[in-house]
Design goal:
mainly alpha
């Protein structure tokens, strides 16, 4: 998901107070599970408890996607501009991430 979907779900869904905090917590918790798995670490009891909220997470993601799609303008130029705004990553951030991944990969290769 683009940054807008993870960092601003409450504004995208027009959520306030407790509802906004709950939505942000669910997304943050599932992102933590994802990160744990991607980095090859085992899941612990906390992760298992988070995964029991899968139905809430799925519903929230569906609501975010529907809200996002409703914001896409119908004309081609405006649509492209809106989508680019959701997914544009600054080149410096992209380069830094690529360098980090390259170093991580080479450190694993060199250990073998």
């Amino acid at each position: 998901m683009g940054n807008v979907f993870v960092s601003e779900p409450s504004s995208l869904l027009d959520l306030r107070d407790d509802a906004a905090r709950t939505a942000n917590r669910i997304l943050r918790d599932f992102y933590a599970v994802r990160s744990t798995l991607v980095h090859g670490s085992p899941l612990n009891d906390r992760h298992s408890n988070i995964l029991q909220q899968m139905n809430q997470f799925e519903l929230l993601v569906r609501q975010i996607l529907v809200a996002a799609l409703r914001q896409i303008p119908p004309d081609e130029d405006s649509r492209k501009q809106r989508l680019a705004g959701w997914y544009d990553v600054p080149l410096t951030a992209l380069a830094s991430e690529m360098l980090r991944l390259l170093k991580q990969t080479w450190s694993v290769v060199l250990r073998r």
